[in-house]
Amino acid sequence: MFDFCDKVLNYAELLGASYADIRIIIRDIESLYTKNGKLENYSINNIEGFGVRVICDNGWGFASSSNLDSSQIEKTVRKAVSIAKASSKVRKEPIILSKDPPFQDRWASTYLIDPFTVPFDNKLQTLLEIDEILRNEPSVKIAEGYMEFRREHKYFASSENARILQTTIVSGAGYSATAVGNEDVQTRSYPMSFGGQYMQMGWELVESLKLKENAQRVASETAALLNAKEPEPKVRDLIIGGEQLSLQIHESCGHPSELDRVLGYEENYAGSSFITVDKYRNLHYGSHKVNIVADSTLPNGLGTFGYDDDGVRAQRFFVVKNGLYQNYLTNRELAYTINEDRSRGCSRADNFSSVPIIRMINLSLLPGDDKFEDIIAATEDGLYVDGIKTWSIDQMRLNFQFTCQIGYLIKNGKMIEMVKNPTYQGITPNFWQSCDMIASEEYWKPWGVINCGKGQPAQVMMMTHGAAPARFKNVMTGIVRH
């Protein structure tokens, strides 16, 4: 494949490109979806192709092909160069790439059991057994199960002499139960919303999730929610479980930290950012308890890799340290705008046919030193929430509202009552500044996100957010109805 890459790069330089790179992706995806005792969908898809980026006459150009045949090289490269020359006519500022060194390397994620060697019948039987347990609860009318497995080979080469091959295996599984009754509909999911838990692991991930062991609990909670009340609207202390907190991190720290969004390149799709450049390293983002780390070396993370799609080596760095904002997520193209010589390695594309843009890597809230039980015991009047349901956040990533799948009222240090549709709202820096307790490492878990959308044309990316339950003081909770 690197011979193919060399032909592409040589032809790009022949046509006048001052910089060129190529990504070849070969990807296999197996997915299963069951619903109410039946296999609703099963597919095995193969995706392959290459994408070419060039700089020519101070303009970027990109083109791709789903055909890995040498006959496609000339047409694809000519298109990329033509686009670069056209874009250079309207570009005002120079293209300045960061001074990151090129690498020649191979990297692979780790796994114990190749999921593609596990028989289909084993996978289906696992989902159907869970389905049966869920629907044994009379009020559960819809039971859904999911599994997906990915294997990818990615080749990257550049005119700066980078030559990198990366191989990854991703596995995921989960299920949900939807109950109907008492003029209401409620859903609980396990082990995470949006299709389950995903990690860069093999079939051993599915075995470790204890899917069947938790099915009865999930079904019972779903049924109980039908008769639960909603929490009354009031300001109270809020304790957020790890799954929901992972989404909070994603929406109110991850996206506003993407430098292209800060500079205004995302405004017409998903908004900009309140962390403007005048606040860079000068923002009191959270309390001194809050430490948020970006880490593309996190073991088994969905945003873990050896090198990003600029060929920059994976790294770990603080985004927020002791409550103070530290670093944006950057790529080679925009690092210079904040006077940095090196990229933070956050350039990613979801496919060979997509242009790499700044994307979140794994982003985690570091654990504190409190036991979860002690956080509950220290709360006189509070609400515990978890399970992702719905959310909204404004175009600057400031004003937000989240509704969770399940909650429990806390009185005098004890959980006393289940509540449904628990909702909370806040302003991002005020909210994180109110964080006064974070559970310790034994409660910390990585949560996989597989559906993060960004860009036009839209790209869907995966990453992991690690979190342990945390408490936030004096938060507005409950739905205020007028």
Number of strands: 23
Count of runs of 4 or more consecutive helical residues: 9
Q: Can you tell me the number of structural domains?
A: 2
Strand content: 35-45%
Oligomeric state of the chains in view? single chain
Largest sheet: 8 strands, mixed
Derived from helix and strand composition plus strand pairing, the structural class reads alpha+beta
What is the gyration radius calculated from CA atoms?
A: 24 Å
Mean of the pLDDT scores? 97
The percentage helix is: 10-25%
Amino-to-carboxy terminus distance: 63 Å
Low-confidence stretches: none
Shape: globular
List keywords for this structure.
single chain; 482 residues; alpha+beta; PmbA/TldD fold; 2 domains; eight-stranded mixed sheet; five-stranded mixed β-barrel
Report on this model:
This protein is of the alpha+beta class. The protein has two domains: 2-225, PmbA/TldD fold (2-Layer Sandwich), CATH 3.30.2290; 234-477, no CATH class. Helix content is 20%, strand content 39%. The protein is built from nine helices and 23 strands. Strands 1, 2, 3, 4, 5, 6, 7 and 8 form an eight-stranded mixed β-sheet that branches. A five-stranded mixed beta barrel has the order 9-16-17-19-23. It has a four-stranded antiparallel β-sheet with strand order 12-11-10-15, with helices on one face. Helix 1 packs across helix 2 and helix 3 (120-135) runs parallel beside helix 5. It is globular, with a radius of gyration of 24 Å. The mean pLDDT is 97.
